[in-house]
Write a structure and sequence with these properties.
Elements: H1 2-14, E1 18-22, H2 25-28, H3 51-54, H4 57-62, H5 65-71, H6 85-95, E2 101-104, H7 110-114, E3 119-121, E4 124-131, E5 137-139, H8 140-148, E6 162-166, H9 175-187, E7 190-194, H10 205-212, E8 216-220, E9 233-235, H11 238-254
Parallel strand pairs: 1-2, 1-7, 2-3, 7-8, 8-9
Antiparallel strand pairs: 4-5, 4-6
Helix pairs in contact: 1-11, 6-11, 9-10
This protein binds zinc ion.
Zinc ion binds near residues 133, 158 and 160.
């Protein structure tokens, strides 16, 4: 383990374009339950509705009260959660010039809260909301208090319903964002893949794209993934991996 970590750390120091891909696993270290895991949020119905319905665009358009009622407990209470070891590691690596970009499946804003600046959220983000009617924008901080007060957030100019920029079921991923993620994969020479089961598209294709272009792949996940055979190094524990690399980074920063 220690030797393997030394090696990965050396790769990070030497890489011209080191990147990372993260999934729900990295946020379970912050206490956010894995969305699709066994005890995941997606498994629990809310007031008789499955989460696939709550996050479905047609249901939202019919009556946003269901989504906002459910989201009040989770999406608009992200302040309860603190960045975990992986979020901190990636922010510290970026500050040290050893991480160019984080591509994430998560919508919990924890990479940004940890200090990462270059983050691509392929499933969107609640940081911004758009009016369904006129397209005007409101921030998470503007919408949050309205939702917490049990109301539906509405546009100030046309009174249309505001929708978070999270990709709902029935909605396509943002094409530009996805293209950007694929470009990053094609351009990176080292990719840390952390906390993703890599079973849902496009998550499964992105690291494969990096491998196809010759990037060195490091996979850290407690469960096997379909891309394990592409990995130059494979670790199970996110926490040990992140803590080990943070310790090495602290050492060279202090020197
Ligand atoms: Zn509007």
């Amino acid at each position: 383990m220690e030797q393997a970590l030394d090696e990965v750390f050396r790769w990070l120091q030497q890489a011209a374009f080191p990147a990372a891909f993260t999934g729900a696993g990295v946020s379970t270290l912050s206490g956010i339950r894995d969305f699709r895991g066994k005890n995941g949020v997606y498994r629990e119905p809310w007031q008789g509705m499955a989460v696939e319905e709550l996050l479905s665009l047609p249901v939202f358009e019919k009556d946003p009260v269901h989504f906002y009622g459910w989201a009040r407990e989770f999406v608009y209470r992200l302040d309860r959660f603190q960045p975990g070891a992986v979020h901190l590691l990636l922010a510290e690596l970026e500050a040290a010039g050893m991480m160019k970009e984080v591509i994430t499946q998560n919508i919990d804003l924890l990479h940004q809260r940890a200090g990462s600046r270059n983050v691509c959220e392929i499933h969107g983000s609640p940081a911004r909301h758009h009016c369904r009617r006129c397209g005007s924008v409101q921030s998470y901080d503007e919408v949050g208090p309205v939702v917490m007060a049990g109301e539906i957030p509405r546009c100030r100019s046309c009174h249309g319903v505001m929708k978070p920029d999270i990709v709902f079921y029935g909605e396509n991923l943002d094409e530009d964002r996805l293209q950007h993620a694929f470009d990053t994969m094609a351009g990176c020479d080292l990719l840390l893949v952390m906390g993703s089961s890599l079973t849902v598209q496009p998550a499964a294709s992105l690291p494969a794209e990096a491998a196809r272009h010759g990037a060195r792949i490091v996979i850290v996940n407690d469960q096997p993934t379909p891309l394990d055979r592409l990995a130059a190094r494979r670790f199970r524990s996110l926490e040990e991996f992140a803590d080990g690399l943070r310790a090495r980074l602290a050492q060279i920063s202090g020197a």
